[in-house]
Design brief:
alpha+beta, FAD/NAD(P)-binding domain, 9-stranded mixed β-sheet, 3-stranded antiparallel β-sheet
């Protein structure tokens, strides 16, 4: 297994639970400071417009998050709810309306909000701008770095071997079959099967991926308001504002008094080893958004910033598939900025593909050539 992020560790846990011997190699430390899986927070939501598959997988994952919370004894996942706001009317054809319709039809108790509700319940928001939306109590956020540490500890306790200090730069192939991984310094790890789950570095390992996925930088910004306790749930839950039209989302204040804001949009193409620095233009764009949407937060000083590197696929769907030309090689990558929430559920998908078992989600993530770009429906495409 190459990569000790969410895909790799989730697969390792599941495969080990099925009786397989598993070695995970990673440059280390785990969580790796450059990995997309590592940060203070990641959103957990079932809200995917009319996309039943992702909504179902997220609902399954949330059950898993609660199970992990019980096992750990203190929360990795904070179910503070998910506030979806729109500056345009929320009708059945809008992304917000599709999410509301799909989830309420499934029995989830979402609550519609209008401008008056925003002013009363969520007073930091500009209620004259955000005229509609809903609040989904079945959602929230997860502690990203802590989750990876928890998964790694669980894996080791279950008997998975995690070898840090091994940076895989290629797959060992003999007679058309993957037989292990090699590192840049000549090291080797031999195995009966290989899973490439190295995030933005995966295309360097598995041939044929360079044209269908690539690294994209997304700036993460951290603000320190003067009265941080005011930016806590229930008045300030995890949120998305015009997510499919503008891309903005964010989190309540964390234990260090910091509020995180980011954009789930087109980002900028980068090299996988480029510095993880936020773009100045993104900081300015965020300040402009906050001035219109969250005026009090707009005045807060910037406490920090960094770039998260998505492993973007051409259509926004993951790649969890066996290589069509190299027997024994499975790829599990292409998170496209929305995979972390599935951490408790995605391992079963990977393990089923590795072992050739049927899985209801696997067809969406199959090996595929690049086609007409569609993209994840809730992600801002940058065209407006």
């Amino acid at each position: 297994m190459a990569g000790a992020g969410v895909f790799g560790l989730a697969a390792a846990l599941e495969l080990r639970g099925r009786g397989c011997s598993v070695i995970v190699v990673d440059p280390g430390p785990v969580p790796h400071p450059l990995a997309a899986s590592n940060d203070v927070s990641r959103m957990v939501r079932m809200d995917y417009a009319g996309d039943q598959l992702y909504s179902d997988l997220a609902a399954e994952a949330i059950e898993g998050w609660h199970s992990w919370n019980r096992r750990r004894g203190c929360p990795l996942y904070h179910e503070d709810g998910f506030l979806v706001l729109s500056s345009q009317p929320v009708d059945d054809g809008s992304v917000e309306g599709q999410s509301f319709g799909l989830l309420t039809a499934a029995g989830w108790p979402l609550e519609r909000v209008d401008g008056g509700d925003v002013a009363r319940r969520f007073p930091f928001w500009n209620s004259s701008r955000y005229i509609g939306g809903y609040f989904n109590p079945r959602g929230g956020w997860a502690e990203a770095g802590e989750t990876v540490s928890f998964m790694a500890a669980e894996a080791v306790a279950a008997g998975v071997e995690i070898r840090c200090g091994f940076r895989a730069d290629g797959v060992l192939v003999e007679s058309g079959r993957a037989v292990g991984l090699r590192s840049g310094d000549g090291g080797e790890v031999r195995a009966d099967r290989v899973v490439a789950a190295a995030g933005v570095w995966t295309p360097r390992l598995a041939p044929g991926l360079g044209d269908v996925m690539w690294p994209v930088a997304q700036s993460l910004l951290y603000f320190r308001p003067d009265a941080p306790e005011r930016f806590a749930p229930p008045g300030f839950p995890p949120w998305a504002a015009d997510l499919s039209r503008a891309g903005w989302y964010g989190f309540p204040v964390n234990a260090e008094g910091v509020v995180k804001v980011a954009n789930h949009g087109p980002g900028r193409r980068v090299d996988a080893d480029a510095p993880r620095e936020a773009a100045l233009a993104d900081i300015e764009s965020c300040r402009s958004f906050l001035a219109q949407a969250l005026p009090e937060l707009a005045r807060a000083p910037l406490a920090g910033s960094r770039a998260c590197f998505y492993c973007d696929t051409w259509d926004g769907n993951f790649y969890i598939a066996n290589h069509p030309e190299i027997e024994g090689l499975t790829v599990a990558t292409g998170g496209s900025g929305h995979a972390f929430k599935f951490a408790p559920a995605i391992g079963r998908v990977v393990a089923d593909v590795v072992q050739g078992r049927a899985n209801p989600y696997a067809a969406r993530f199959a090996w595929r050539a690049r086609g007409e770009i569609s993209g994840e429906v809730t992600r801002y495409g940058g065209n407006d």
